[in-house]
User: Fold this.
Amino acid sequence: MPSKVVHDKCKCGNKKQIVSDCCRKCYLKNQSCKYACESCGRKRKKTASPICRDCYNKNRTETILNDKTPIGKTFYTQGSQNKYNYIRQHSRRLIDSLGMKKVCSCCKFEHGIQICHIKPISDYTEDTPLNVVNSLDNLVLLCPNCHWLFDHGYPSLDELIQLNKHSRRDLNSRPDG
Assistant:
């Protein structure tokens, strides 16, 4: 027959075992205050990582921005059928880590936003570093329609933006039927 656990009251009023100094809630509260981030020194919860979430995200962004891996080494990685898949994933991780608002640069649409390379990935040599191909100067956020227009011969992003401005102006000036 198992022994009966005897409970007492903690300072906060919750039940605790007599052999314990405090209840589980107070114990966890005190534990989280004992750990400091190795990077910034702020208090953090006990985790496997020695740094807090903010420092992790900052380091992650810097790592992504400074990735100098030649794009030729990333081809067909992770079992992908498309040789540029890793490069596209890297660009999405970059945009996500920077916390950029996902809005089409041309028409301001906010759904289904895609990351477009202004200079196509195929135009780079295999020894080009990943951070050059996915530099912020070479990436633009577009909706699927604007992305298709850009990829299929629209001369420039500026002309695409002008087209969208004119079409919005035409819609706003139409009388309601």
About this structure: The chain has a mean pLDDT of 80. The radius of gyration is 27 Å. Residues 157-173 form the longest helix (17 residues).
